[in-house]
Amino acid sequence: MNRRRFLLNALAGASALALAPSLLRARSLPSIAEAFASGLEANPWMAGWKSVAAESFGPGPATVEGRIPAELAGTLYRNGPALYERAGQRYEHWFDGDGMLHAWRLDQSGVSHQARMVATAKYRREQRAGRFVVPAAGTAIEGAEAIRNNDDMNTANTSVLCLGDRVFALWEAGSAIELSPEDLATLGPVTWRDELAAAPFSAHPLRDRDGSIWNFGSLDMLGGKGLLIWHLDSDGSLKEVATLTDGQPGYLHSFAMSERHLVFVLTPYRMREGKAFFERLRFAADLPCRVAVVAKDALAAPRWFDVDFGMVYHFADAFEQGREIVVRASRHGNPVAARSPFAAAMRGEVAAEEDPVELVELRIDLAGGSVRWDETGIRGTEFPTVDARATRPRQSRIYAPVRQGRALAPYPNAIASIDVHRGRMNVHRYGDEIMAEEHVFVAKPGSHRAGQGWLLGTLFDPVRGRSGLAVLDAEHLDAGPLASAWLPFMFPLGFHGAFRWDA
Ligand SMILES: [Fe+2]
């Protein structure tokens, strides 16, 4: 079978699954909306999972405390699920909410904020219907209507890619959706090559040193088999696309990249009957993960390895040390809870037990053919980011929200710079009531040493009812923010963002 035929077959399978009756089975959703409303009353921090109050915000000024660094002028684009309820129905899975794109614009004159719902085909269709009518990834939708393919379900709610002067909202299992960088108007889904329309382009692309972009798209999730590997040029043109297949279905949300290799860790799962994808999915902790190591100059010749089961959403960085590749990742310790993070909060409940996350190192011995997980003992580190200029573990710091001391919510309240190599951590604790999200690293102009830059992180303050942005010196987190910018309102927690310098 030639490659193009394979892709078409794989994607045809995707449509078939998306139409499977099991996705459309009903569940009594109004009671979940009611339970959330009462849970929110008792626990104000659950506003992080509350449906957004407006279709757009701003543009409007934020109140700045401190000083924005003189050289820092650009926009932090952030994405996240924002619309969770329609007509009394509430999604049960955090990943289901329709995406809202935010633009935090910073320069010497201050900080402004603007946000708009991404006008996906799904969002527009449900705006017209006044209720949920499209199958969701994690919630069975009562009375869901037929869809043509995975892009009809695309919520564009996970991350952002800035490529030249273009901005894209990304989802896990469909096309990138292009938006206007200026006013966040939705321009529509992108087709990188005609026969690849609606092919999955994941939410975690990685930028190589030459400016090109690597990404993958999981076909397993869509009822196909294996992965697509995407390679885009820095101008957004498609350089290469390849497929990667294995006998065992594997889930992955992101991947890792070292100097010469791409590393894909596929977490094994089995599917139960009924309900939506994430409800049917059970991670198979009795099976090993399959690890594919793909040389960037030989996409068709992957090396496959087995490693003990582990569930990772996010990888931090990866390094080549002789014939070994070391990959750092945030590994979830509870494979049952990991398939639906903050499921309890989505239902208005306080979780009886949490899903522990640990920073681990995946060590791939290319010469000996073995792979193992090494634990670091550093816990609670989801949404890790790095300065991609670091070429060795000793240069690298992993920036991750963590929880330190008392916290109002079961959520990070601090930001840490973690030196795994030396076992050191530098932390700024925002306070009991602040919920700290991903902090994006932005290199200082003219700097060459890894770590010289700022962290831009969004904050959620349910006690004062406000959302905000902090700017910290990445080398001096314990000095606290150089500047904070607050809005007089709040919107739900998001996932990932990307910074774009002003032209
Ligand atoms: Fe993610």
Report on the structure:
The protein has helices at about 5-20, 30-40, 120-130, 275-280, 345; strands at about 55-60, 65, 75-85, 85, 90, 100-105, 110-115, 160-165, 165-170, 175-180, 185-190, 205, 215-220, 225-230, 240-245, 250, 255, 260-270, 280-285, 290-295, 305, 310-320, 325-330, 355-365, 370-380, 385, 400, 415-420, 425-430, 435-445, 455-460, 465-475, 485, 495-500. With about 500 residues, the chain is mainly beta. It has a single domain (about 5-500), classed as 6 Propeller (Neuraminidase). The strands form eight sheets. Strands 16, 17, 18, 19, 20 and 21 form a six-stranded antiparallel β-sheet that branches. The radius of gyration is 21 Å and the shape is globular. The structure holds fe (ii) ion (FE2). Fe (ii) ion (FE2) binds near residues 158, 204, 254, 495 and 496. Fe (ii) ion binds next to strand 22.
Domain count: the total is 1
Percent strand equals 35-45%
CATH class: Mainly Beta
Number of helices: 5
**Rg, Å, rounded:** 21 Å
Mean pLDDT level: 93
Question: Helix and strand layout, with pairings?
Answer:
Blueprint: H1 3-18, H2 30-42, E1 56-61, E2 63-66, E3 74-83, E4 85-86, E5 89-90, E6 98-107, E7 110-117, H3 121-129, E8 159-163, E9 166-170, E10 177-179, E11 186-189, E12 206-207, E13 213-218, E14 227-232, E15 238-244, E16 250-251, E17 256-257, E18 261-271, H4 277-280, E19 281-283, E20 289-295, E21 303-307, E22 311-321, E23 324-332, H5 343-346, E24 357-365, E25 370-379, E26 385-386, E27 398-402, E28 414-419, E29 424-429, E30 435-443, E31 453-461, E32 466-473, E33 483-486, E34 496-501
Bound molecules: fe (ii) ion.
Fe (ii) ion binds next to β22.
